[in-house]
Design goal:
The complex is a heterodimer. Chain A starts with 5 loop residues before the first strand and ends in an 11-residue tail after the last helix. Chain A is globular. Chain A has 15 helices and 13 strands. In chain A, a hairpin with a 5-residue loop joins strand 12 and strand 13. In chain B, strands 1, 2, 3, 4, 5 and 6 form a six-stranded mixed sheet that branches. In chain B, helix 1 crosses helix 6. The chains are: A alpha+beta, B alpha/beta. Chains A and B meet through helix 4, helix 5 and helix 6 of A and strand 2 and helix 5 of B.
């Protein structure tokens, strides 16, 4: 405790999140006056790495930003370029891209639900202990994750950092027979996902309620992935390229990740909870039915710890939609449309597993990228995480340090933060003699 | 001959994290032909669980002096941190946790080895550091040895665990 009466609380290394981060709280008079999610993972320079590159090179480079959600980076980039270049893709390509995204959501959500977040609810320090007591649950999660990876590998050439996405489509579309293994595996996986929803809904969350400003894509007929408008729980409705009209990034001294806020300075929440709340009407009937059976529709948005249920519902949605796409699959008439680059601003947002992912590229007369902005969901959720930490922390700070740490980490993990995605190159100054 | 899977971990764009691919390139073609190579990037439990046969995990490590070749049985990797050795790739789940999860599940941890080299520079866009590059042949020799030993299900007496 400081002479001022301030108490500093620190979690030096956050566990079970992707990347390296730290939490620091300053408490004064029982109130949390500062909550900093400190992302100290080294800057990664991707927004500079893509400068001078062709659009197709950019798509391969940005896939390297994340080993968990590379498809999201490829999808936001390819849609941005196709929007600027006025490229019309074959309807079959559009369906394949949704299947591709389903694969990523499946592997990412299965990882988070079973191996990163569930141990918190059951009182285990890690998934090792969870596996010892509930091997059937962990095996279910691994089966689902493996199938998600397999979908990405079939469409993308490999499960991590796929290589098939091109402006105009795919470098290669799978033959119908290549999807047979998915057609056979998906019914059992859907049953596993239905059980996952029931299991996640049975996990008792800590008591904590608040109202967040929710933001996601919404499409009239499809659950949001690649298309739609950016909407919010308080009436925002803009096209994906117009993200900068509503939001902006800022640099904070305690983090290598930029933070995004609404222009009025308010934080907002992205991800499965926001999507289910704002676009739940387009959930696959199986997912909607499973969500209704939990009876937690309202509580999902009030208690951030219930995000595990929203994630499980989306896991089921992704598997059910994948099954529909695979069952009806016919090879696209043209797997790769022709296109010509043109100068201008290419911008788009798609829905990564963790939430809205915005890309903006300036293309020069030579057809190469001259400037880039990549705004990952974790950068956008950071301010909401810190806001929730300030609200929630006073209820746990009287607990023993280890228990308080556990509860605060559980809160942070509710957002499924991907710290590796969020680190940015901020400002490099070189002084030369 | 037993099935042997070589799981190559690491991000090839990040300096010494490209160790696994460099070692694969240094393996004799005949050895490469004996194993199934999977470039997994980040090793996850589903890469190991239910795996048919033996496994060799290849990754950069932190802890020992740069350039040191590390060769451990998989079963010892969970405790490697106690000996100052940490696999260097940025796994969402730390490698010992990944192994611990698989070890708890039916079928348990497959038999196998962890082979790696202590890195010194993981800068994005950097090549392998000179000291790690110099250690690649020795690391490849260890992998070559274990591929042949595991394929034939015999462990040469001169190689200690």
């Amino acid at each position: 405790m400081h002479e001022s009466g301030e108490v500093a609380f620190s979690v030096r290394q956050l566990t079970r999140v992707e990347g390296e981060g730290r939490l620091s709280l300053t408490v004064s008079g029982g109130e949390v006056t500062e909550a900093h999610l400190e992302i100290f993972e080294a800057p990664r320079y991707f927004e500079r790495l893509v400068v001078g590159r062709t659009p197709d090179e950019v798509i391969d480079i940005v896939a390297r930003i994340c080993g968990i959600c590379p498809v999201a980076y490829q999808m936001s980039a390819v849609h941005a370029f196709e929007h600027l270049f006025d490229v019309s893709v074959d309807p079959g390509v559009r369906r394949l891209r949704r299947l591709f995204y389903c694969g990523e959501w499946i592997e990412s959500h299965a990882l988070h639900v079973y191996l990163l977040h569930a141990p918190d609810f059951l009182g285990y320090p890690s998934a090792v202990e969870l596996a010892a007591d509930h091997p059937e649950a962990v095996e279910r999660g691994l089966r689902l994750k493996r199938l998600g990876n397999r979908i990405v590998a079939i469409l993308g050439g490999r499960p991590i950092h796929p290589v098939s996405v091109r402006v105009g489509g795919f470098s290669r579309a799978p033959r119908r027979a290549e999807l047979d293994e998915l057609r056979q595996a998906l019914p059992a996986a859907i049953a596993d996902a239905q059980e996952t929803v029931r299991w996640a809904a049975s996990l008792e969350p800590p008591a904590y309620e608040r109202q967040s400003r929710l933001v996601s894509l919404r499409h009239p007929t499809e659950y949001p992935m690649n298309d739609g408008h950016i909407v919010s729980s308080d009436g925002l409705d803009i096209a994906p390229p117009d993200w900068p009209d509503a939001f902006a990034e800022r640099q904070v001294p305690w983090s290598n990740a930029l933070q995004a806020l609404a222009h009025d300075g308010s934080p907002y929440l992205l991800g499965p909870t926001a999507r289910v709340a704002l676009a739940g009407g387009t959930l696959h009937p199986l997912a909607a039915e499973a969500l209704a059976a939990t009876g937690l529709g309202e509580e999902l948005t009030a208690n951030v710890f219930r995000s595990i249920v929203a994630r499980a519902v989306e896991l089921l949605h992704a598997l059910a939609e994948a099954a529909d796409i695979v069952d009806a699959y016919a090879e696209p008439g043209a797997h790769l449309a022709t296109w010509e680059p043109r100068p201008g601003v290419a911008a788009w947002a798609t829905e990564a597993p963790r939430g809205l992912l915005f890309h903006r590229y300036e293309i020069g007369d030579n057809g190469l990228v001259s400037r880039a902005q990549i705004v990952p969901p974790t950068s956008q959720n950071q301010a909401a995480i810190e806001h929730d930490l300030r609200q929630f922390a006073p209820s746990v700070l009287e607990l023993p340090h280890a228990e308080a740490t556990h509860r605060l980490e559980q809160l942070i993990r509710s957002y499924d933060p991907c710290i590796s995605c969020a680190t940015h190159f901020l400002d490099l100054r070189v002084e030369r003699a | 001959m037993r099935n042997v899977v070589l799981l190559a971990c690491g991000e090839p764009m990040r300096g010494d994290d490209a160790l696994a691919l460099a070692v694969l390139d240094a393996l004799p073609p005949a050895t490469r032909a004996m194993v199934e190579v999977r470039n997994v990037g980040q090793l996850m439990p589903d890469d190991l669980h239910g795996l048919n046969g033996a496994v060799i995990i290849l990754d950069a490590v932190d802890g020992p002096p740069p350039g040191t070749v590390v060769d451990l049985p998989l079963s010892a990797l969970a405790d490697a941190h106690d000996h100052g050795i940490t696999p260097a790739s940025s796994h969402a789940l730390p490698l010992p946790v990944t192994l611990g999860i698989v070890g708890q599940l039916p079928g348990g941890l497959p038999e196998g080895r962890f082979v790696g080299v202590a890195g010194s520079d993981y800068t994005l866009g950097a090549p392998l550091s000179a000291i790690v590059r110099d250690a690649v042949p020795a690391c490849a020799a260890r992998v070559n040895h274990w591929v042949r030993a595991l394929v034939h299900e015999s462990r040469p007496s001169h190689v200690p665990d």
